[in-house]
Amino acid sequence: MEYTTLGATGTEVSRICLGCMSFGSEEPWMLDEEASREIIDRAVELGINFFDTANAYSAGESEEILGRALDERDRAEQVVATKTFFPVGEDGPNQSGLSRKAIEQELSDSLDRLGMDTVDLLQIHRWDDDTPIENTLGALDDAVRRGEVRHLGASSMWAYQLADALETSRARGLERFVSMQNHYHLAYREEEREMLPLCEREDVGVIPWGPLGQGYLTRPHDELEATTRGDPANHHNPTPEYDAGGGEEINERVQELAADYGVSMAQLSLAWLLHKEWVTAPVVGTTSVEHLEEAVEAVEIDLADSDIDYLEAPYEPQPIIGHE
Ligand SMILES: NC(=O)c1ccc[n+]([C@@H]2O[C@H](COP(=O)([O-])OP(=O)(O)OC[C@H]3O[C@@H](n4cnc5c(N)ncnc54)[C@H](OP(=O)(O)O)[C@@H]3O)[C@@H](O)[C@H]2O)c1
């Protein structure tokens, strides 16, 4: 495994982050604790030390499963990230959003579920239009001072919002966001316009979610609905949007080059992301040990510049997906 630094933190993270959204029981494609544990154990064996969960994943079950699995591990080596914003289970007043009250309650519950005193990275899952960012940053900064959180991260939002947050932190002497978890992959590159250059300028680490297009880049486009998760009844995959952005042609080029390199489509797609200098570590979701092993092997793939250009050429601008 290769390791790199997460933004300006000095903290070393593996180049593959294990996404833990598929641990729990809320959806038919999720894994129970025993099966999730197999993935987490294998990830640790393979050198992955970076794990991404959220309070809302399977109404908190994902955090519980991850916390119990890592409990037996050397926590000094692990970098655990969670998120807050969306409600855990059913929504109600003050059960979501980024007010001081919601952040303090949700963080306390997340730490309980994880079985940890401190979480390495607390990310705001989305921007909250109802709470001024200085209030949110004040509450997050206090959580760092209390020792409950080491670093703060952000997720899908407009670049102007991240710029606003970074400037607010600077002006008020508050902890700043050290990472951006955004929607970015070969078939969705809108982030290259403003968000990624901003992250580069500000030394904000980039940890793309859905790096395989939530499955879109892992199999031929006429087989996308073949898996339980690929069935539109079980999960919204933005296939029509990707298709409209040159996705089918990109998918075919991924198939072609994967065969040339002797790797899987998922590996080739991850290799493309890992070649992008602004990417720290893609947050990969999988329910299979074999697919996890493939993701780790993708770190070794060396893509020719001409092949990167070939993969990128069919892309066309598309509507924003991941935030409003
Ligand atoms: N911040 C946010 O708003 C946000 C939003 C969404 C997700 N996330 C994070 O990002 C993580 C990943 O997201 P994601 O799961 O939606 O997207 P993803 O990693 O792009 O795609 C996962 C899908 O690809 C399939 N896959 C993975 N490796 C494969 C391989 N080698 N061959 C064939 N298929 C393969 C998986 O199937 P198998 O299960 O069969 O491997 C699964 O259906 C989540 O776990 C979560 O931590 C964050």
UniProtKB/TrEMBL annotation:
Signal peptide (from-to): none
Domain NADP-dependent oxidoreductase: 15-313
Region (Disordered): 225-246
Lineage: superkingdom: Archaea
EC number: 1.1.1.-
One term of GO molecular function: oxidoreductase activity
Composition bias, Basic and acidic residues: 225-234
Pfam assignment, any one: Aldo_ket_red
Name this protein carries in UniProt: Aldo/keto reductase
